[in-house]
């Protein structure tokens, strides 16, 4: 069960001691207020009762969505206490790690849209690689350092936020047809369908690094 933890912290500004309220898990299906706070990042906002200054204080928690059957552990890999989900029937659930707020919010957006994050990570990596080639490795234009899934734009396209190191961020469209092809390739590949990182515990990290490994495996399978 979710419980609120109260910790005494020192205000980063006035150095006075004050309370910080944290959650060990957030059940989005039972608490829509907390769900919105996670999605807009305000869950980490803290205000000092002494000096009134606000600070962003991160802490680990398990995000649970019973409607779309997924859990995201926001914390150090492998550190999620199984007690947090032990009382639940988790047969159908997908378990993911998120190390940054961006990743956490993105995973929620992906699973709320009933999409496959593995296919989207591969699609994002393919787009970045294509831009890299087209710009001769960044010589003739910026190469994205980060791409985040935002939403379905229409029946044929997804919208991604794209971040560059030396250029303003922008929105980019990507084809849903490509996504469906990648999702099919994944389901046709037993090792990928099962999850490359099965051996590493319940929560999987599906990110760019995972996509690199996955592209290698899919490429080798296509050749053989
Ligand atoms: Zn203060």
Secondary structure tally: strands: 11
Summarize the biggest pleated sheet: 4 strands, mixed
Mean pLDDT: 92
Q: What order do the helices and strands follow? A: EEEHEEEEEHHEEEHHH
- Give the uncertain stretches in residue-range form: none
Number of domains: 2
Strand order of the largest sheet: 3-6-7-8
Beta-strand percentage?
25-35%
Helix content: 25-40%
Distance between the first and last residues' Cα: 48 Å
Number of helices: 6
Radius of gyration: 20 Å
Q: Which ligands accompany this protein?
A: zinc ion
Summing up helix and strand content along with how strands pair, one would put the structural category as alpha+beta
Shape, principal axes of CA atoms: globular
Summarize the structure.
The chain is of the alpha+beta class and 224 residues long.
Element layout with pairings:
Elements: E1 4-10, E2 17-23, E3 25-27, H1 32-39, E4 45-47, E5 54-56, E6 61-65, E7 70-74, E8 94-98, H2 101-112, H3 117-134, E9 144-152, E10 157-164, E11 170-175, H4 176-188, H5 190-194, H6 208-223
Parallel strand pairs: 3-6, 7-8
Antiparallel strand pairs: 1-2, 4-5, 6-7, 9-10, 10-11
Helix pairs in contact: 3-4, 3-6
The structure holds zinc ion.
Zinc ion binds next to loops.
Protein traits:
224 residues, alpha+beta, 2 domains, 6 helices, 11 strands, binds zinc ion
What does this protein structure show overall?
By secondary structure, the chain is of the alpha+beta class. It has two domains: 4-112, no CATH class; 117-223, no CATH class. The chain is built from six helices and eleven strands. The strands form four sheets. Strands 3-6-7-8 form a four-stranded mixed sheet, covered by helices on one side. Strands 9-10-11 form a three-stranded antiparallel sheet. β1 and β2 (17-23) form a beta hairpin. The protein is globular. The model has no long low-confidence stretch (mean pLDDT 92). Zinc ion is lined by residues 11, 13-14, 16, 48, 50-51, 53.
């Amino acid at each position: 069960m979710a419980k609120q933890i109260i910790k005494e912290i020192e205000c980063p500004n006035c150095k006075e001691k004050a309370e910080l309220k944290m959650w060990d898990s957030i059940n989005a299906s039972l608490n829509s207020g907390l769900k919105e706070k996670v999605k807009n990042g305000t869950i980490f906002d803290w205000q000092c009762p002494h000096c009134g200054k606000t600070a962003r204080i991160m802490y680990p928690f398990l995000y649970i969505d019973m409607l779309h059957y997924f859990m995201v552990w926001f914390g150090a890999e492998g550190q999620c206490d199984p007690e947090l989900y032990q009382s639940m029937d988790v047969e159908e659930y997908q378990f993911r790690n998120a190390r940054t707020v961006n990743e956490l919010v993105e995973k929620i957006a992906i699973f709320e849209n009933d999409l496959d994050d593995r296919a989207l990570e591969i699609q994002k990596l393919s787009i970045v690689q294509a831009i890299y080639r087209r710009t001769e490795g960044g010589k003739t234009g910026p190469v994205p350092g980060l791409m985040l899934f935002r939403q379905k734009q229409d029946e044929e396209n997804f919208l991604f936020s794209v971040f560059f190191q030396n250029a303003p961020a922008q929105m980019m469209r990507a084809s849903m047809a490509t996504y469906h092809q990648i999702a099919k390739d994944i389901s046709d590949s037993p090792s990928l369908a099962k999850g490359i990182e099965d051996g590493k515990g319940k929560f999987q990290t599906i990110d760019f690094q995972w996509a690199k490994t996955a592209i290698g495996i899919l490429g080798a399978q296509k050749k053989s």
